[in-house]
Amino acid sequence: MAAATDETYLHRVVAVLGAFKGEENAVGAAELARRTGLPKSTVHRIVLSLVEEGLLERHGSEVRLGLRLFEIGQRVPRQRALRDAARPYMYDLREATRQTIHLAVLEGSEVVYVDILASAGGPPLPSRVGGRLPAHATGVGKAILAFSPQETVRAVLEGDLPRLSERSTVAPGLLARELAGIRRAGVAYDHEESGLGVVCAAGPVLGFDGEVLGALSISGWSNRMRLDQVSPAVHTAARALSRTLGHRDAPLSPS
């Protein structure tokens, strides 16, 4: 019984931490209770404990995510190793294109953004470091899915495919055909699918055994950035990063 109680409490703690949104500064306990569906008294006790441990910080009468969470996140081996290896290529891409550069990994049916190098004058983007977006509606997500195991792709195609913009591909058959084309070409595109006015080109990052580790992308305004001009750059950078990580059989060049 004690183990079950501990597990229930842990699930509630995770629910409270997961209720924070990246774009907001702080949230009150009442709003956290509304978002999680937990009793206010339960949320209040959890918040007090998390503040005491440094995982949350007080901000007036509200709380925000604490610095200790960031410190713990930096220790995640896969994220740290991939980010550290990718940084030089990301800087080169931003220097060459003057656009915003993303590095993301797949978790379930969503991409998690590991690193972002913003560009001055770039469009406002829905992405943020540590944030998530549905994989099927992003360039990085489609680049990863195209090189993922069949069971991973099947789970996405058979699951919910939310529409982020009027141009999002939400038909499983169309998405499956697009992924097949991406696998042949080695580059994925977001034609205003994650947000109107924004386009991107993305390339998969592969590891030693061919496992897809993540994806790099270049994002910019749809009326200022030509995808055919930037796609060779992201394709080359993704291949070079893949080789740095031990891959020896990189995707075919875009046609």
How would you describe this protein?
- The protein has 255 residues and is an alpha+beta fold.
- 45% of the residues lie in helices and 20% in strands.
- It has nine helices and eight strands.
- The protein has helices spanning 2-18, 29-36, 40-52, 67-73, 77-97, 139-146, 150-158, 172-185, 227-244, and strands spanning 56-59, 62-65, 100-107, 110-117, 132-134, 188-191, 198-206, 212-221.
- The strands form two sheets. The protein has a six-stranded antiparallel sheet.
- Helix 5 (77-97) runs antiparallel to helix 9.
- The amount of helix comes to 40-55%
State the secondary-structure class.
alpha+beta
CATH domain fold name of the largest domain:
Beta-Lactamase
Q: What gyration radius follows from the Cα positions, in whole Å?
A: 20 Å
The fourth-level CATH homologous superfamily of the largest domain is GAF domain
